[in-house]
């Protein structure tokens, strides 16, 4: 047998697999899969553009043997360039904002790159910004080449030639939604353009951190590598059909959830994208195929996202966390029944009577009066929204529950950490459905979580 070996590390870039997110997506109707860009040799989607920008510069005579590459980067593009620079023998100088993790700086230096750290809290036009510092170094260095991923057309071109076709082929053309956390816009522009050329009905969803210029006022934020404080030329915003704005907290907690439920150690921008994908998936049916692109590995964030103390210091975890599971909250309740449901064929009056009888303010809605599996639950009714409807239209009390029901409650697993409850309930969920695998167990509300925390404090 002939030996099977790649000629060099650069030939292993791309061709990343898709993985079903069966646990994170439990209870959702669409198929949810992840594009594993964190499995590229350098650990991120930016490997794709690093080699393409360098080879384009070589063809055009902008980069010659022994030359110097200078690039402003949040870390991942720097690593992508570092891979190519190491193989091809170039010097690499990277400028980075001081908010980037120490692991990223150390990683670049491990590849032999020189790292210049610049302040985050300055406008992009400031001579101290990492953009301007890179330009100055390139201008002062003989034989230097500045790829500039924010303006280099090879950035989106790399994804038009590789990422887009891979997504189309791997899903057999069945992809309906692509969710991407957007930074320079190269990935969404290249891959999005390719997919829309194949099928204009494909929906492109942009996940944007709170504080980025794309969806609101610019202010500092913690998630790295995505969002911007200016509009890059590599980004075609017309390709984005929908934007979802995501907080740092939701990004980081979703990243932590991803590794604990799926075994996928990903960075904060992956959490941003996954949070947005879950929001989108809640609105879709079984015919949808949602692909979320996970841009990078979590190995560069062990001192931040995956460090409990750093998370607490920044307000993303409680200062005095309660180490408990969802099932502990269910067991802690006194005098509250397990799971009470109402059939969609019962009257609204009957649903109101049931809520009053058990002292609860919401009910899952089922087809036939029983909920053996999560899939048996088709909707929900809530005291507040029913009051609004019935007060304006009293005759509704004699109508079927199906007339007033809303979407089913989000599902949480009984084995999950209690932090998940806080994340979902504080994020706007009216209630949650606790489940043991696919078996519904109980509805949990803000009042239940508040009562549990109060009991824990009294027990200390």
Q: Whole-Å distance between the termini?
A: 66 Å
What quaternary form is this?
single chain
Q: What is the helix fraction of residues, given as a range?
A: 25-40%
* Shape label: elongated
Named CATH architecture of the largest domain? 3-Layer(aba) Sandwich
Largest sheet entry:
6 strands, mixed
Number of strands: 16
By DSSP (H or I, 4+ residues per run), the number of helices equals 14
Question: Major sheet: order of its strands?
Answer: 1-2-10-7-8-9
Report strand %.
15-25%
Class by SSE composition: alpha/beta
Number of domains: 3
Name of the top-level CATH class of the largest domain: Alpha Beta
- Mean pLDDT over the full residue set: 91
Task: Give a quick rundown of the structure.
This protein has 460 residues and is α/β, with parallel strands linked by helices.
What's the topology here?
Elements: E1 18-20, E2 31-36, H1 47-59, E3 68-72, H2 76-88, E4 91-97, H3 102-110, E5 114-118, H4 130-140, E6 144-145, H5 154-170, E7 177-181, H6 186-198, E8 203-209, E9 242-246, H7 248-262, H8 268-281, E10 289-294, H9 308-313, H10 326-332, E11 342-343, H11 348-358, E12 362-366, E13 377-382, H12 383-392, E14 411-413, H13 418-426, E15 432-436, E16 439-444, H14 446-459
Parallel strand pairs: 2-10, 3-4, 3-6, 4-5, 7-8, 7-10, 8-9, 11-12, 14-15
Antiparallel strand pairs: 1-2, 12-13, 15-16
What does this structure look like?
- With 460 residues, the protein is of the alpha/beta class.
- It has three domains: 9-39 and 162-313, Rossmann fold; 47-145, 3-Layer(aba) Sandwich (Rossmann fold), CATH 3.40.50.1100; 326-459, CBS-domain (Roll), CATH 3.10.580.10.
- Helix content is 35%, strand content 17%.
- The chain contains 14 helices and 16 strands.
- It has helices at residues 47-59, 76-88, 102-110, 130-140, 154-170, 186-198, 248-262, 268-281, 308-313, 326-332, 348-358, 383-392, 418-426, 446-459; strands at residues 18-20, 31-36, 68-72, 91-97, 114-118, 144-145, 177-181, 203-209, 242-246, 289-294, 342-343, 362-366, 377-382, 411-413, 432-436, 439-444.
- It has a six-stranded mixed sheet with strand order 1-2-10-7-8-9. The chain has a four-stranded parallel sheet with strand order 5-4-3-6, sandwiched between helices.
- Helix 1 (47-59) packs across helix 5, helix 5 crosses helix 6 and helix 7 (248-262) packs across helix 8 (268-281).
- The protein starts with 17 loop residues before the first strand and ends with a helix.
- 46% of the residues are buried.
